[in-house]
Specification:
mainly alpha; two-stranded antiparallel sheet
Length: 482
């Protein structure tokens, strides 16, 4: 039998933290006289009650988790936090059903950025800040998981990023706590720098704070229906580009840089591949806007750079309907959704390092066909790649695409057209947010979709954010027996 006490204790601590976080939008709405403060206050009390209750009743001093408990904790914590994060939205003046509230909360915590809320410009500041705060918390949560938990669970090749100090599986929670303190300081610093950048670019203080949280977390939720297109001029877009990229690079390398090893950041092969892929997509997207006279100018380059960074990093900001640029551009943006950023970042998608391993695997197979007696050792960052790591990566990519196909098929059962079903499934399982087309594209939202489709897409967001295996392994009988 699985001992649920350590799991319940950690979830209780996380829920108590979430309840405290709800006080911030409560105070904000109360200060401006918006009645939504009552819903936030009630949600905070309910969340604190359950969180503190679990923490006290299931108290474990220095909890240590087995691998099985770590898998359970990862999925159950995300579900519990989403369920309680939906309460302020459910009890607000927006009159949302629980399906919509859960979808919005899941989109926030998984840093997806898909929304069912319309007329954002008229919503209370507490609601708008809460959405941003959820993405900020989800961003730091996934970074800690990617650096401390997933490498030890050996999910999808993440064992490539295990360190010497993470060899003992029973130290999962203590190691996560140690990393969290270091990462939080760095995360807060980058967020503050982003706030300053947005202020200098012309944003109001409230918008700068809200957008900085969703930029660093590569979440993309905005306080305006027009997203960053609400702001005229180039400055806001360039600040967003800079910090979206920073949020998509490995935070573990930032910790090395802070400790004087700046060279690790510039020598990392994953970072090199990230910028090569991003530069290629920017160039191709820029060319895709070519006019009949074969001219493309500065405005087209700026739009190509902004939207390419936004989609590839999984942020999902937009300044217009990029889906109407050209058929070639649509294909490029669809491909970019699956690429994502670096492992150990707030970004999403399949991740750059898996494409590196895939390339090495293809290279090895090709080399063995050309020279059957030759020996080729696939490498990642100069280190040999173990066969089990390559198998894990290839399995992950196959499963990712298989889940995307299944999700698309299930969405078509709700009479969604193929473009909407494909792009909605892709944008949610890759945690990008906006898709393509008139319904879920950058100028639309997910509000009009059937409730069943929203639950499916919420499940897709969770699968994509938690690297598939973390969730799916719980449905395998042998996991519970072994």
């Amino acid at each position: 039998m699985v001992d649920f006490r350590p799991i319940s204790f950690v979830i209780g601590v996380l829920l108590a933290t979430l309840g405290i976080a709800m006080i911030i939008p409560t105070i904000l709405d109360l200060s401006v006289g918006n009645p939504n403060w009552v819903g936030f206050a009630a949600a905070s009390l309910v969340t604190l009650f359950f969180g503190v209750g679990l923490g006290i009743s299931q108290y474990v001093k220095s909890p240590e988790l087995t691998i099985k408990q770590a898998f359970l904790l990862t999925t159950l914590a995300w579900l519990a936090l989403t369920a309680f994060s939906a309460l302020p939205l459910l009890w607000s003046d927006m009159k949302m059903g629980y399906t919509d509230a859960f979808f919005e909360a899941m989109s926030g915590l998984t840093t997806t950025g898909a929304t069912v809320i319309t007329d954002l410009d008229t919503r209370s500041p507490g609601v708008l800040l809460w959405r941003s705060l959820l993405q900020w918390l989800g961003g730091i949560g996934i970074i800690v998981m990617a650096l401390a938990v997933m490498p030890m669970l050996q999910i999808g090749g993440m064992q490539l990023f295990r360190t010497e100090s993470s060899d003992k599986f029973e130290k999962i929670v203590p190691r996560a706590a140690q990393l969290a303190s270091s990462i939080t300081s760095l995360y807060v610093l980058l967020s503050l720098l982003c706030v300053i950048g947005y202020l200098l670019a012309g944003m109001t203080l409230f918008d700068a704070i809200a957008h900085s949280m969703t930029t660093i977390a590569t979440g993309g939720l905005s306080t305006h229906d027009l997203s960053l297109g609400y702001y005229k001029g180039d400055a806001v877009q360039y600040v967003a580009i800079c910090f979206m990229i920073l949020g998509s690079l490995p935070f573990g390398l930032y910790l090395y840089a802070v400790n004087g090893r700046v060279d690790r950041l510039f020598k990392d092969s994953q970072v090199h591949w990230f910028f090569i892929a991003l530069s290629t997509f920017i160039f191709l997207t820029w060319i895709s806007q070519m006019k009949p006279d074969f001219s493309v100018g500065y405005n087209e380059f700026r739009d190509a750079a902004f939207h390419s960074v936004s989609i590839m990093t999984g942020t999902g900001y937009a300044t217009g309907d990029y889906g109407k640029w050209s058929a070639f551009a649509e294909v490029l943006f669809f491909m970019m959704m699956f690429v994502g950023g670096c492992a150990g970042s707030a970004s999403c998608g399949i991740k750059i390092f898996r494409f590196q391993v895939l390339f090495q695997s293809i290279k090895q197979r090709t080399f063995s066909l050309i020279q059957p007696n030759g020996i080729y050792i696939p490498r990642y960052s100069g280190r040999p790649i173990e066969e089990r790591v390559m198998t894990a990566v290839l399995s992950f990519i196959f499963l990712f695409l298989f889940c995307f196909a299944i999700l698309t098929f299930l969405l078509t059962l709700y009479d969604l057209d193929l473009m909407t079903a494909l792009s909605a499934a892709a944008s949610c399982i890759t945690n990008v947010g906006p898709g393509l087309g008139d319904i879920v594209g950058p100028t639309g939202n997910f509000q009009s979709l059937p409730d069943g489709a929203k639950w499916l897409l919420a499940a897709g967001m969770l699968l994509g954010r938690l690297e598939l295996f973390t969730v799916l392994v719980l449905f395998i009988p042998t996991f519970w027996r072994s």
